[in-house]
Every structure is written in C-alpha cells, then in structure tokens.
C-alpha cells in the first residue's frame, strides 16, 4: 500500500494526447482540441528540463490500429528524458518494438482488460517495472464507486475499478496510470476519493491523471491521495484563465517548494 506520508521525489508528468500526428486535449474524453505539433512540444519540455513524459494515442484502439511507430521514432529522437507510451498496444511483440524505439515504459489499457494474461507475459519478458496498467475510471451511474471504461472512454465495462487494479497488479503490472474520465480536462482537481481507494488497495506506484489545474492539485493528489506522481494535461498546455495554448511546466524550485509546503501542512495536521 502506498502511504501519503511517504516523501518521494516530486513527479509531475506531462501527459500528452496523440491524435493522428497532432497533440490534442480532451475534456471528459470527448473530442480533442488541437494543441500543436508533438515534436516541437517535446523540444520545449526538454528546454524546461522536464524529468519524464507520457504519450497516449487516444484513437489507436478505437480505430483498431497499431501505434504510429514512425511518429514515435521521431519523438524518441528529440526526447531527452524517459517517456512512456500507450495506445493500440495488444501484444508483447508490439511492446518490444516500442521499447526498442526508446520508450521506457509501455502502458496497456483495453487489451489488458480483455486479456489479463498479457500483463503477465509482458512482465515476464520485460520486467514489471516497465509494464503499466492504464485504467480509465468513470463514476457509476448507480450505487456509487467507479467502473472500468475502455476503448478510449467509449465502452463501460461494469467492472469495479479497485478490483481491476488489484487484479492488474497480480497479473504483473508494476505501475498503474489511473485516469478519471469525469475529471479529465476539468482543471478542477483530481478525484481524490478515487485515487485514495486505488492506492490503498495496491502496492505499486499509482500515477493519478485527470483534473490537474494548479500545482496545488498535484501536491494534493500525492500528499493527500497517496499517488506517487501526478500526470497533468491541461495544466501544462494551457493558460488557466482562457485556455489558450501555452506549453508550460513548473521549475524544479517551484516543485520542491510546493511539495515541501504540502508535506509540512500534513505534518502539522497530524501532530498532537
């Protein structure tokens, strides 16, 4: 179980959505708004000394196609930081090709749900530290809780998110990318209840995604929610006030100070 009181190196990860050869940003997993060219965006993040990136091809699975390897090769050539990739991954052979192109981690979503043994085969071949179970979570319409959603948010599965997260870890996933469908693109904060429920149930790192609008949101999901990292989309591609495109990222000093302050507040709250 991941505990929110455990201090870790602050990880705020730009999560960039690929649609065709472009970067887009969605709200609630709906139609993406054009953001820009992924190659130029990677160059900007490199100049900003971002520690890691995550790329998700949001149309690969719905279109029943493979990852765009040529585009990813271009991205890898410009990406001087570790990056993870997800989208359209259905086999260990595809994963091997993605690792060979330069991906440090590969996330699997729909295929892992439909064939849970895929995670085990991947973990046995590449090591669980390189295998990410990507879980999209939507609030249940009835009875509360969250259910698994696949195919880029198009297919509700009825399966409890926490139960599936536990099974994914048993099957070999070394990390979970947990995305709130309801909070996606809202810039109103993460679903802390969702994140707490999953981090309390598994013993691997959980990367929370969906809802980041400020650095305080990121510190909250780590310090209060128990996530090991905060993935951010809108926060790092928009100006907050008018949502005009502006690729941005906190400085290392801003990250250190924000997380230090959040941990200090937490320590004061639990002190007798």
Quick recap:
This protein is of the alpha/beta class.
The CATH topology, please?
TIM Barrel
Order of helices and strands: EEEHEHEHEHHEEEHEHEHEH
Q: Number of folding domains? A: 1
**What is the CATH architecture term?**
Alpha-Beta Barrel
Largest sheet: 8 strands, parallel, barrel
C-alpha Rg (nearest Å): 17 Å
Q: State the distance separating the first and last CA atoms.
A: 25 Å
Q: Which stretches of 5+ consecutive residues score pLDDT under 50? A: 1-6
Strand content bin: 15-25%
The total of helices stands at 9
Total strands: the figure is 12
Task: Record the SSE blueprint.
Elements: E1 12-19, E2 22-25, E3 33-36, H1 38-47, E4 53-57, H2 69-78, E5 83-86, H3 92-101, E6 105-108, H4 110-114, H5 117-126, E7 131-139, E8 146-150, E9 155-160, H6 161-170, E10 175-180, H7 192-199, E11 206-209, H8 215-223, E12 229-232, H9 252-270
Parallel strand pairs: 1-4, 1-12, 4-5, 5-6, 6-7, 7-10, 10-11, 11-12
Antiparallel strand pairs: 1-2, 2-3, 7-8, 8-9
């Amino acid at each position: 179980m991941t505990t929110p009181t455990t201090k870790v190196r602050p990880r705020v990860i730009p999560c960039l959505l690929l649609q065709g050869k472009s970067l887009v940003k969605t709200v609630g997993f709906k139609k993406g708004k054009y953001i820009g060219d992924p190659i130029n965006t990677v160059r900007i993040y490199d100049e900003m000394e971002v520690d890691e990136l995550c790329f998700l091809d949001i149309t690969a699975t719905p279109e029943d196609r493979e990852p765009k390897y040529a585009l990813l090769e271009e991205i890898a050539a410009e990406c001087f930081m570790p990056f993870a990739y997800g989208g359209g991954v259905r086999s260990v052979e595809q994963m091997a090709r993605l690792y060979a192109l330069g991906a440090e981690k590969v996330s699997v979503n729909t295929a892992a749900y439909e064939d849970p043994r895929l995670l085990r085969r991947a973990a046995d071949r590449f090591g669980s530290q390189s295998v990410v179970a990507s879980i999209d979570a939507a609030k249940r319409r009835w009875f509360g809780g969250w259910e698994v959603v696949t195919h880029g948010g198009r297919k509700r599965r009825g399966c409890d998110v926490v139960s599936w997260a536990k099974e994914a870890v048993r099957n070999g996933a070394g990390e979970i990318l947990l995305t709130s469908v309801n909070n996606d693109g809202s810039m109103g904060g993460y679903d802390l209840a969702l994140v707490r429920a999953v981090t309390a149930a598994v013993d691997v790192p959980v990367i929370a995604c969906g809802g980041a609008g400020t650095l305080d949101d990121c510190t909250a999901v780590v310090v209060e929610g128990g996530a090991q990292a905060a993935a951010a989309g809108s926060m790092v591609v928009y100006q907050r006030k008018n949502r005009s495109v502006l690729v941005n990222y906190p400085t290392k000093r801003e990250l250190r100070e924000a997380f230090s302050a959040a941990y200090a507040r937490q320590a004061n709250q639990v002190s007798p």
